[in-house]
Amino acid sequence: MARIGVTGMGTMGAALALNIADNGFEVAVHNRSPEKTRAVVKGAGDLAERLAPAENLEDFVGSLTKPRAVLIMVNASAVDAVIEDLVPLLEQGDLIVDAGNANFNDTRRRAKSVEDAGLLFLGVGVSGGEEGARFGPSIMVGGTPEAYAPIRDIIEAIAAEFEGDACADFLGTDGVGHLVKTVHNGIEYADMQLIAEAYGLLRADGRDIDRMADLFGQWNDGPLQSYLIEITSEILKTKDRDTGRPIVDVILDQAGQKGTGRWTVIEALKMGQSATAIESAVAARSWSALSDTRAAAEAAFPPDGRVAEVLDTDLEAALLAARILTYGQGMALLEAASAEFEWSLDLARVAEIWRAGCIIRSSLLDDISAAIRHGLPHGQLLLEPAFVARLHETIPALRRVVTAAMLNGQSVPAMAASLSFFDTLRRARGTTDLIQAQRDFFGRHGFKRVDRDGDGFHGPWAD
Ligand SMILES: NC(=O)C1=CN([C@@H]2O[C@H](COP(=O)(O)OP(=O)(O)OC[C@H]3O[C@@H](n4cnc5c(N)ncnc54)[C@H](OP(=O)(O)O)[C@@H]3O)[C@@H](O)[C@H]2O)C=CC1
Ligand SMILES: O=C(CO)[C@H](O)[C@H](O)COP(=O)(O)O
Predict the structure, then answer these.
(1) Residue 185 C-alpha to ligand 2 middle, in angstroms?
(2) Has 146 been annotated as catalytic?
(3) Homologous superfamily of the 432-462 domain (CATH)
């Protein structure tokens, strides 16, 4: 009998189940199509003795000790159907864990309906891709402490570690684990886009791909140290087996997206927050789908042949500045969500559990968690003294890179969005006085004055 079961033997579910077994726990395994379960057991080697495979949900649930704990790792669109099948098979006090990527609004709804049925529910974000799931992901738990208690030891055992600290924690009630994972992915989208923009500038400059790989490798030894920079270097070194060409040259430039970046932007907009670098990254993926349109537009507006003059050191600093601003936007969004849903989210802890295991892990996160513990003035990372100093050092480079890109017709939407966010925020008096005047002019919306208390003032056009 197993203390926990995993249903969904896809990329992530299989890897998590093996991780659980590797940490000494018996684990029941199940998949809608049983051949996948058989394949996982067959490929498990010595770990197979800790796997209890089941060909149907009834046997799967029957192989769990009570109170049962079932971890679902299926596509977001299938979670409701799986829960519907599971609930009649479970008893009061049993636990359902949705560990896939889920829209946190769905998680809130699911938590309520599962709890109404007398069961416990957790919405858990897991990050790290297949390798992370197998050897140590970052794990973001949302739900109730009672629901977390029975599996806490398992979650902490399978999670990544940063200097002995498990990169897993209970973050608060209902949807918080999935919103934190969603924002993690939003930051992931922006960081990937920023890196792709730097790659685009280097390509426009005619750089050799192998030397580019070395440059990313060097950057990974400095302040940009991160998983995404590291794998970019690896990817750029990789040749296609069939043609011998750099692998990036045979990959169609159309990026997929499963929804978490878009969810981040939607939630940011709903909460009156800005996630502009993330929004640019989502847009860039959407624009990437328009291959025919882009080809037609290139024919209509051909490149003017100028060469981008961008220094490697400037690119490195520009990426760092934009990354800081992106993390800052993500953290501010989480702070706003915490206030709105009364989660009392410990943002420093979030940064801590992202320091290892997850896709956005980077050396910067240790500094970000320290900065949050010192307190972020006005809730903004960019105002924390250590980050003020870093931005003073790096923003001029971001400005030079964005300017060079713009002058040369190179697309850098996420870098430009980050810089505009920064420049907007660092002006005590902006330009929305005119917006307010326009709103009042056409719609009598009223405005506040700088020289009097109260609101609802109108311009003379209203007379
Ligand atoms: N891949 C990654 O890097 C990461 C993925 N995630 C998230 O983890 C979850 C799983 O992703 P991943 O493992 O990559 O996906 P896969 O495509 O590898 O596997 C999908 C799994 O979902 C099952 N499934 C699909 N539809 C149904 C259904 N209607 N009923 C029952 N089972 C169903 C599949 O079963 P079958 O074999 O029968 O089709 C399969 O086990 C997703 O939410 C994803 O967003 C989270 C972090 C990283
Ligand atoms: O959660 C993940 C990583 O953290 C998954 O890999 C997710 O699929 C990435 O999102 P997308 O497929 O939209 O790029």
Answers:
(1) 7
(2) no
(3) 6-Phosphogluconate Dehydrogenase, domain 3 (1.20.5.320)
